[in-house]
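Justification of computing resources. Each target in the renewal requires a structure prediction run like the one illustrated here; the chain below, 169 residues long, is used simply to show the kind of job we budget for.
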Amino acid sequence: MLDNFSRYQKRLTLECLFPTSSQNKCACGCGKELPKRRIKWYSNDCRRQALNIFYIVKGDTSVIRQNLYRLDRGYCRNCGVYSNDWHADHVIPVFKGGGACGLENFQTLCVDCHKYKTIQLDRIPDSDYILTTSLDILPSPNNTIRTFNKSIGKDIIGNTVGISKCATV
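Resulting structure tokens:
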């Protein structure tokens, strides 16, 4: 079972997130029918994509950072400044149910913006507006990614809860 209030999912298995289909369909969710001699994945690309998602949800920081860098190239989503010393930040913090999430709940923040967001979240008891304003940020080269995150970010908790029907190991 996924724990939305935990950063790392220690007992999570690949089978839990991507169960083998009894209808001869790819486990990644692409809907493609499995070719002969294939048991779980339609292609090696489907398997690689599923493994990538699995490691992100499990909380593997190196995989999260690699994928986030591919999206943002080190530019802060809040102020748009490039930094070699950037942080991978949960849009919805773990303590508010943002753990066990996909890449849509992560954003690149510079050290200063990350400190500011953290201070605001700690000081304000009902800090939900910080979460939504961190998605409505200044224009930068990554505007399409930001819009994508905004549309999914509002539903991230519902998406991860839907996956969490998996049995614990």
